[in-house]
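Researcher: We plan to redesign the surface later, but first we want a full-length starting point. Tokens attached.
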């Protein structure tokens, strides 16, 4: 009965800030895998796990080896940096190139919390977006 009356959206995404994590051992990684499996079962779909602040390459490799970092959805939000250089040494003649800060093949690894939040919202189904915004949850 309660599920029929509950208009809140189902669990869609989880954002974890790893900026303070220096090391992740196999037990911690297995715990993340187990929790992911339980949340997927609870939500009755695949929950997106967004990671922020992965400063150590071995943390990324460990999470990738456990199946984290990629998504089945096509929506990708990522930060870019302005890279420019002078051509022929002239001040007013510059080329500006936008380059991604992180690997774009891992759309669930983010540079900051705002980017992770925007990515999570962008990948929501339209019906859930209206519930989130109409109820003042954002």
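Model: Full-length starting sequence:
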């Amino acid at each position: 009965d309660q599920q029929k009356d509950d208009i809140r959206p189902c669990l869609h995404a989880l954002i974890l800030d790893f900026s303070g994590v220096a090391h992740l051992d196999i037990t911690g990684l297995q715990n993340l895998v187990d929790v992911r499996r339980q949340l997927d079962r609870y939500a009755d779909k695949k929950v997106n796990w967004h990671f922020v602040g992965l400063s150590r390459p071995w943390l990324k490799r460990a999470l990738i080896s456990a199946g984290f970092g990629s998504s089945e959805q096509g929506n990708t939000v990522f930060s870019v940096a302005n890279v420019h250089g002078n051509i022929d040494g002239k001040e007013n003649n510059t080329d500006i190139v936008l380059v991604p800060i992180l690997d774009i093949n891992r759309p669930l690894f983010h540079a900051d919390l705002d980017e992770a939040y925007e990515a999570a919202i962008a990948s929501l189904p339209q019906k859930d977006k209206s519930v989130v915004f109409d109820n003042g949850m954002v």
